[in-house]
Amino acid sequence: MPPTPHQGHVVVAPDKFKGSLEGAEAAARIAAGIRRAAPGTEVRELPVADGGEGTLAAALAAGFSRVPAKVAGPTGLPVDAALAVRDDTAVVELAQASGLARLPGGRTAPLAAGSYGVGQLIAKAVSLGAKRIVLGLGGSACTDGGAGMVQALGARLRDAGGAELPPGGAALRRLAEIDPGPLAEVLGGVEVVVACDVDNPLLGPRGAAAVYGPQKGADGGDLVVLEAGLTRFADLVAEATGRDVREAPGAGAAGGVGFAALALLGATMRPGIELLLDLLGFDGAVRGACLVVTGEGCLDAQTLHGKAPAGVAAAAARAGVRVAAVAGRLELSEPEWRAAGFTAVIALTDLAERPGESMTRAAELAELAGERLAEELLSH
């Protein structure tokens, strides 16, 4: 016999299950399972993100309007991207313009990939009247320190002969002059907030090139070139602005786009999931709830360091609401996930009948996971 409707509603707030389910679909499937097992229970779907890929989709699911924009992809070829707008706030997701998924044919271009399209999305947001721009970093294909982004907003980066630098981190080695141009005017009165879940500096062994360059196709020789370019860029930015933020936590995010945002756009940084939960109205959604269900593709040690499910669990705990999770795979021990605040965790791999089905049947299994959680946690 199904449980009777529980006092209070349920909030379903998962991140994407990378490679199998977008956040909105994961939320819809988990919610469907809960509704089936606990008919009459109010279930609210609020997919979340931590500032990386999926940030735009989460904003759209929360009621932001989609604004299409054709911009330069990481190699300069045009791509169809979008941003999200509500009132005077715009959400710009770097991966829409300069993400690995935007590389033509999936071929990496570690030395030449740039962030120009991100700047074009920011310019579009400003033209629409945005006074607050939330910039989600993550999944970038470039290691250009954000040089392309500021060029798209009017800054001039020139070599010793006075020629404008071409895209990519390698070209930064030839940088001789930075002219911020109309940057301050373009962004006058606009607050830029970066959603970021890494604390890497721009340079060094924990920097943008060393840590993230290999994910973008850079080998040993490429990494030396990129580090030299980023160092040259940081030196001249400090000279031009009188501020040196190369060591700032998050400066190394998205191939150094975090650095340019801090140094040249006057941005502030906030942990991605915290910022997104505020933006999506999580506190309001969870008020009066009896349960929050979050999730992602893999619940592991990384989850505990600022990933979306941990952020949701912390926010739910502050509201005094139990939180459970659905994961594609579970790599935490029960003591670990309980210490992180989860009442229950269900992994799709445990529901699958055969290996690989947690990916190929993810939607169906997520629904089953929702059903199981409702049976376990919502029965009287």
UniProtKB/TrEMBL annotation:
Species, as recorded: Kitasatospora xanthocidica
Name the UniProt record assigns to this protein: Glycerate kinase
PANTHER family: GLYCERATE KINASE
InterPro entries, A to Z: Glyc_kinase_flavodox-like_fold (IPR018193), Glycerate_kinase (IPR004381), Glycerate_kinase_RE-like (IPR018197), Glycerate_kinase_sf (IPR036129)
Keywords: Kinase, Transferase
Domain of life: Bacteria
BP GO annotations: organic acid phosphorylation
SUPFAM superfamilies reported for this sequence: Glycerate kinase I
NCBIfam families listed in its UniProt record: glycerate kinase
Molecular-function annotations in GO: glycerate kinase activity
UniProt-listed Gene3D superfamilies: Glycerate kinase, domain 1 (3.40.50.10350), Glycerate kinase, domain 2 (3.90.1510.10)
Family statement drawn from the similarity comment of this UniProt entry: Belongs to the glycerate kinase type-1 family.
Keyword Kinase: yes
